[in-house]
Automatic annotation (TrEMBL):
The keyword Ion transport does not apply. InterPro entries: Tetraspanin/Peripherin, Tetraspanin_EC2_sf. This is Tetraspanin-5 isoform X1. It is a multi-pass membrane protein. It comes from Thrips palmi (Melon thrips). It is found in: Membrane.
Amino acid sequence: MPAAQNAERAARKHPRPQTTVREPSEISCCLKYVIFGTNVLFWIFGLCILTIGIWAWSEKDTFNNLGRLTNIALDPAFVLILVGTLTFIIGFTGCVGALRENTCLLLGYAIILALLLLAEMTVGILGFVFKDWIKAQATGGFQAFIVHYREDPDQQNLIDWIQEDWLQCCGIEGPKDWDRNNYFNCSSREVGSREACGVPFSCCRRRPNEIIKNKQCGYDVRKPGYLSQGSQHIQSPSDWQIFERGCLRAGEEWMEANLIRVAITGMTVGICQNYDVAKIIYEKGCIQAGEEWVERNLLLLACAAVIIAFVQVLGICFAQHLRSDIWAQKAKWH
């Protein structure tokens, strides 16, 4: 009996732990970390874009000269700051909201994506309905780029990329539009501008096997009689009092003495006959080139828009599903 009593006392002092069955969580770990991982990338990407935009503004000393921002919407650095800030906010709310299971941040993430999707659909519909208005705005923006070409290095690099690499065009409707710029206006020749009656190098067609592009290829191309300049005229030899040599021999000697000059003249004439200004620079305006590019790539653009919209809708659904899982788990606790 004492042994039984001692065992009973020991059981009371050290009760055997009860095994509890852990209930499965209502929150999907796969969904949680898919949202987290995707938005970490967006967060880093947005931070990089924002940093580049701020650096570009600081290089132009824009923060100390805010009065220079006459066309802030057309400033590439401002566009980078705007896009970077929006991407950073989306990535932050999605990343932290999913990791910390914060329903408020996930709700904000879903709302931002929904508003962004609505804005994209609105812009797409309005762009299709008001095509002429969009074209007029694009023309006005391009005119501002041309006027301020030498004043803003970001706009200069952007328009060079549009003309040389993307659309392979020159000006709005053609090279004559560069008369709007003070440096390229033909009247600037009077004040000593070497670029007068010319176009930027980005208007020039790249020659075959050209490694380093000639930055002066656009000089004087809009000047009247540009192609005839530089051609050499053959001068007749001096008159002799008595022609003692036969004409055949004299012709052979003259050809030998003027071989280089004749070759240059022949090449110049051949170039002038077969090499017009359109083969030197792009004559198509960038607005027309842009319209043709959109028409050629309409299917690709439509597919890209559908994919972007699908990804945004997927993000909204994922965020809302994770919120409902979090609320279901909280309901179990209470």
